[in-house]
Amino acid sequence: EGSKRIHELWPALYEKALVSQGGGYEAVESGPTWTGLKLLGYRTKSILPLVNSTKSLNRALRRALAAKQPIVIGFPPLIDRTSLGKEIGIMGSHAYALTGATDKGYVLYNPWGTQHPKRPLTISDMRKLLAFLSIGR
Known about the structure:
The protein has six helices and five strands. The protein is α+β, with helices and mostly antiparallel strands. The longest helix has 13 residues, at about 10-20. The protein is globular, with a radius of gyration of 15 Å.
């Protein structure tokens, strides 16, 4: 049915297990983007779009997407109060999964399952929003 909502229990249980392994919600909340990836057993490569060239950043992200490596992108506190943050619908002190690329930018997924960004992010957006990326390997 179109109005029937399905609520999966496993993501909440998975999150709770990861948080308990990471030292509690306080230890992992608003922490670096690599925290969750490391708790899952990944080695990580971190990228700061502000200091990387567009070409190298696009190459790294497209390579990681092609290899199906997990990519996490985080944003600093209060970035949601900027005009660009509001326009795109980004939450401050929050991390998203970077799940794909289109001709308009990179697609983000909110792990809370709601309030996904309104459009793909460009490299320029990432720089202006002071994004921080982590790629699991």
